[in-house]
Amino acid sequence: MNDELRKKEGYVPLFFFYTAIVESPATHQRWWALAATAALIALPFVAFWGALAQGFAPIDDLFLVVQNLATRGPTWDHLKIAFTTFDPELYIPLTLVSFQINYLVSGLVPWSYHLMNILLHCANAILLFSILKRVSGAPRASLFAAAVFAVHPINTEAVVWITARKDLLSTFFAFASTLAFLRQTRRGRAMSLVLFLCALFAKVSVAPLPLVFPLLLGIQGKKWNRNLILSTLPFLLLSAVFVGIALFGKERIVQTSNGIETFLLAPWSMLFLIGKFFYPGNFSPLYEVTDAIALSNPKVLFSILGLFGLFGILQWKSLRPLPLTQALTVALLLFAPAILTFFKANTVFLASDRYFYLPSLGVLLFIVLCIRNIGVKIRPPKQMITGVSAFVIAVLCLLSIKQTKLWGSPDALFTQALAMNPRSVAARTALAQTKLERGDPQEAFAVLKEGLKQGDDVRLYLMAGTIYARVGQIDDALAQFTKVTQMEPGNADAWFSIGSLQEQTGNADAALDHYRAAVQLDPSDVPAIIGIGRILADKGDLQGAEEKFRAALKWNSNSADAHRGLAPVLAKTGRVDEAEIHRNLANELAGLR
Predict the structure, then answer these.
(1) CA–CA separation, 433 vs 575, rounded Å?
(2) What is the mean pLDDT of the chain?
(3) Cα distance between residue 576 and residue 582, in whole Å
(4) Cα maximum dimension of the chain
C-alpha cells in the first residue's frame, strides 16, 4: 500500500488492518498490536457512523429510554429505581445506569447514546480479538475474525438500536470476564467473577457463560480437572440467582408459549442466524414465523437434522470433543437464553439479529480454528490473504452502512421487513402504525388491506380500529374491535379498545365493564387499570381509584397517566405533598413525549 493511499482519510482503517494482517506479530509485536487495536476502533465507526445523526429508533427506544425515569440522573433516587425495577420484563440496572450517564452528557439528545453504543462495540471487538488470539494461538486469523465482528451487518441492530445497549454492555463485561478467567490465576478468577456479576446486571442472557469457560480452556489444550470445575461454581450460583430474578420478570408479562414449539424453533432459529452471518442480507427487525411449527415443515426438519449432522461430522474421527465441536458448543450455549424470546405479544418470532451478538464468539472461534488448520497444511501468499481479507471487510462495511441507514427511517425499516415476508402481520401493522403517526391514515389503510389478502388476523382488525378511532370514525372503530372479540374472545386489547371508545362517548358504565374484562384477561394491562381508576374517581370512589392507580404503577412506574390520575385523588384525601410528587412526575414524563 503506497504512501499516497495511506494519507487518504477514507483508507485509514483499511491501512491499519492491512498493516496488522501483513506484518509478522513475532517480528513487530508492539507495532502490530497497535495497528490491530487501531483497526478495531476505526472499523466500527466506518460501518456504523451514520447512526450518530439518527434519532431514537421506532422500536422501544421511547419506552425504555425517553419515557423512563430510571434513565434520568444520575441521582440517588434514579439509581434506586434502576436497581429495583424491571424494564418491564428484564432486570438491567447497569444498562439503565449507562443511560443515566448519557443523560448527564446530552440530556435526551440521541447522539451521545449512539456514540456510546459504537464505543462499546469497538471495545467488544478488541476484547473478542484478545480472546480468540489467546484461545487459538492464531493472531492474524483472530484479527480477521474480530474485524468481521466489528463491521458485520448482523450486528447493526445491536449497535444502532439504542435499546440494544443491554446486549452491548453485557457482552463487554462477559468478554472481559472471559479474558480474566483464562488467565488461570486466583486474582484473575476473582476479577472474572466481579466482571461476570456486572454482565448479569447488564442483561441476564449471559448466564450460560460459566459453562463456556471449560470449553475455551479445552480448546487451548488444557485438561479439565476438579479445581477447574470447582472454580466455576460461584459463577453458576450467580447465574442461578439472576435466572430466578429474570423468570420473575417474565411472569410479569402475559405470554403464551409451547414447550414443543420452542424445542422445534430452537435449531431453526440458530441455523437461521448462522445463515445470515455467512450470507449477509435481507436483515429485518421482525422475523415473524408465518409457517407451521411442526416436523412436517421442511425448514424445521432440515434445521434439526442439519444441526445434529454438523456435530456428527465434526465428531466422526474421535470420541473426544474436538476443538471445532467445542467452538460450536460455545455458540449454542450462549444462544440458549434466546429460546425464551420466541413468543411475544401473541406473535411468534424466529430470531433477532442482536441475539447472535454474544454467541458469535463461538462461530468466529470456529472460523479461526478452521483458518489455523488450513494454514498448517496450505501456506497461501500473504498478498492473497490480505486481498481476500480486505475485500471481505470492505463488502461487510458497505452492507452495514446500508443497513444503518434503514434504521434512521421507520418507514424504510418496516417496509424492508414487510418486503422480506409479506405474510408478517407484525411488520404490516408496524408499517401501518408508522404511516398513521406520520399523519397518513389512507396509506395505513392501504397497507392493512394488502394484509387481508393473506388471510384474516385479529391484529389487522385491531389496527384498523385504531386508525378509525384516530380519524374520529367511532362507529367503524367499534365495529372492528367488536369483530376481534368475536374472532378471539380472550383478546384483552380489543376489550380495552371498546372500553376506551365508550368512555370517549360518555358511556362510563359500559366502559368500566369492558376495562374490567380486559384486566381479567390480562392483569398487566396498565391502560385498562388506569381507565378503571379514572372512572372510579369520577364516581367518587377515591379509595378504589387510588388502589387502581397504584396497581398500574406497580406494573409500570413510568406511566404518566397513572401518576396524573393518582395526584388529584391524593389531594382530595388530604395528602397534598404526595399528590404534588405524583403531579410533578406526570409532568416530567409527559414533557418527554
Answers:
(1) 40
(2) 88
(3) 10
(4) 84
Query: Which residue's C-alpha cell is 368512555?
Result: 503
pLDDT score of 14: 54
Nearest to 84 by CA among 586, 587, 557: 557
Cell of 361: 464468539
- Residue 318, pLDDT score: 52
Question: Given this model, what pLDDT does residue 9 score?
Answer: 40
The DSSP 8-state label assigned to residue 370 in this structure reads H
Q: What are phi and psi of 42, to 5 degrees?
A: -75, -40
Q: How would you classify the pairing of strands 287-288 and 343-344? A: unpaired
pLDDT for position 84: 85
Return the DSSP state at 166.
Answer: H
* Distance of alpha carbon 211 from alpha carbon 48, whole angstroms: 32
Distance CA 353, CA 155 (A): 7
Hey, what's the torsion of the CAs at 512, 515, 521, 527, to 10 degrees?
-150
Write down the H helix ranges in 232-381. 233-251, 259-278, 298-314, 323-335, 360-377
Contact 37, 60 (CB under 8 A): no
How open is the CA angle 365-366-368, to the nearest 5 degrees? 60
Which single residue is written with the C-alpha cell 503506497?
Answer: 2
CA 74 centroid distance within chain:
24
DSSP string, 78-103: HHHHHHH--SSS---HHHHHHHHHHH
Report the DSSP pairing between strands 347-351 and 287-288.
Answer: antiparallel
Residues of the chain with pLDDT under 70: 1-28, 88, 249-258, 315-321, 375-377, 591-593
Location of C-alpha cell 478495531: 40
Dihedral angle over CA of 141, 142, 146, 148, nearest 10: 20
Can you tell me the distance from the alpha carbon of 85 to that of 82, in angstroms, rounded to the nearest whole number?
6
What cell was used for 305?
A: 437434522
Joined grid coordinates for residue 207:
448466564
Residue 347's H or E segment, with its range, is: strand 347-351
The whole-angstrom distance between residue 582's C-alpha and the CA centroid of its chain comes to 31
Q: What angle do CA 295, 296, 302 make, to 5 degrees?
A: 60
Alpha helices in 408-491 (DSSP H): 410-420, 425-437, 441-452, 458-470, 474-487
C-alpha angle 57/60/65, rounded to 5°?
A: 85
**Stretch (H or E) spanning 288:** strand 287-288
CA distance 206 to 177: 11
Per-residue pLDDT at 376: 61
